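thought: fold this chain, then report.
action: predict
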Amino acid sequence: MGHSRGGEGVRAAYQYNRQEGAPFGIRAVLEIGPVDFGRLTGLATPNPLFDASDVAFSVLLPACDRDVTDNQGMRVYDRARVLREKNNPTPKSQIYLLGANHNFFNSEWLPEDSLFRCIDFPILTDREQQEQIGLVYVMGFFRTHIGGENFAYLFTGDAPPPQSIRVGSLPSYTESPNDILMIDDSSAPKSPDFNNTGGANSTVNVAIKTCSGNNCNDPPPGSWYHDQATFAARLSWPVEGNATPTLTMQVAGGLCQERAGRRDAVRKMKGGPSEPPCGRRLQTAGSCFGQRPRW
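observation:
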């Protein structure tokens, strides 16, 4: 586990360990408010880029981070969720913590800039409260992936977090790309009108814009913060009127329907199988600060 620059540090240590034949049995990597300096541009000597593949991975992102203000760790998750894994297919997750700041995830660093404010929600000023958040997720992660217990609900969002988590937490979760059937990750040539399966997408009161790589920042300012190696889609609603914002994706002989603005997706299969094809989980790649529908 690593915090801040230590977050990228443990990711680097994991990859260097693999290069040396894995003398240390690293089975899980957790990062808190990490940097991702491998994506910095304009450097005379580029930094190496470290990924989190073939290992259980999660990243905690403090929404009121005054240090790593662009939440670079979300790009690490972006890459991790699409990398095909040859040796050890494992789940990846991201937790976006409303109100959490950068420094209070340890007991030493001083409070951040007292004048710094978050939009829409207050920044945490109680160090003990934030340390408790870290304790829950750190222990839950390692007890699940190393200790053999099951606290997966903390990262999947299938159940609410414990009452000791007194801030909003937005989980984003995916099984290994090896174990899911991707419906739509905005990479289809005719996206957003068609998805990865070749089925048609249709919308009601929703506007969708897709982009890839550096094209997402043209024209500037660059307000798309996903990793440039992946595709992205931005959903805006309502467009006009009072109709329920809905995106419907035709896939595998059925219809998968998401209702925008809800934390849980609504699945409607009409004329299609009752179970996902090949027994794999159906998944889309859209997210809004970590809210990722899963079926």
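thought: worth noting. The longest helix spans residues 127-145.
final: tokens above.
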